[in-house]
């Protein structure tokens, strides 16, 4: 089976592109980890939140790093809970979850509440990349109102 790298689709998207994520998930169907479960939500036009369900983990068991366009969340339990379990359905295993961030998406903070880790993200477009309106000037009183390139073509012709 052929594997395609869809990372460029994430970089060209605004925030999180659902179609690129679906294509990426379909491409990595065998490789996609299912633990821990998470949600990605759009709070406002340029604000996002990732929520991971981390029952049994505390903030000192977690490590969050952001490097270039990748957000990595790692969890490692210091000690395994011991006991005589009849059924053990709460996973306390170590994990590493990676998220591809679009260009100019920055991590603003993280908080842990009731077993849910919330990571706040914000897209900040630099001023130089924001669209701007350019005024068109017209001065009918001046003879030299045409661009130089157009004048030089008229003289040659």
Automatic annotation (TrEMBL):
<feature type="region of interest" description="Disordered">
    <location>
        <begin position="134"/>
        <end position="157"/>
    </location>
</feature>
<keyword id="KW-0346">Stress response</keyword>
<dbReference type="InterPro" id="IPR037913">
    <property type="entry name" value="ACD_IbpA/B"/>
</dbReference>
<dbReference type="InterPro" id="IPR008978">
    <property type="entry name" value="HSP20-like_chaperone"/>
</dbReference>
<feature type="domain" description="SHSP">
    <location>
        <begin position="29"/>
        <end position="139"/>
    </location>
</feature>
<dbReference type="Pfam" id="PF00011">
    <property type="entry name" value="HSP20"/>
</dbReference>
<dbReference type="InterPro" id="IPR002068">
    <property type="entry name" value="A-crystallin/Hsp20_dom"/>
</dbReference>
<protein>
    <submittedName>
        <fullName>Hsp20 family protein</fullName>
    </submittedName>
</protein>
<feature type="compositionally biased region" description="Basic and acidic residues">
    <location>
        <begin position="145"/>
        <end position="157"/>
    </location>
</feature>
<comment type="similarity">
    <text>Belongs to the small heat shock protein (HSP20) family.</text>
</comment>
């Amino acid at each position: 089976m052929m594997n395609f790298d869809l990372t460029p689709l994430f970089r060209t998207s605004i925030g999180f592109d659902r179609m690129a994520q679906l294509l990426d998930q379909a491409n990595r169907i065998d490789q996609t980890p299912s633990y821990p479960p998470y949600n990605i939500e759009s709070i406002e036009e340029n604000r996002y939140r990732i929520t991971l369900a981390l029952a049994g983990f505390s903030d000192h068991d977690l490590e969050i790093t952001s490097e270039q366009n990748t957000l990595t969340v790692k969890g490692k339990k210091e000690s395994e809970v011991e006991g005589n379990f009849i059924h053990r359905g709460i996973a306390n295993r170590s994990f590493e979850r990676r998220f591809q961030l679009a260009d100019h998406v920055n991590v603003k903070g993280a908080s842990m509440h009731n077993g849910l880790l919330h990571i706040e993200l914000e897209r900040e477009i630099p001023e130089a990349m924001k669209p701007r309106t350019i005024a068109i000037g017209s001065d009918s009183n001046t003879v030299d109102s045409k661009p130089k390139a157009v004048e030089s073509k008229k003289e040659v012709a």
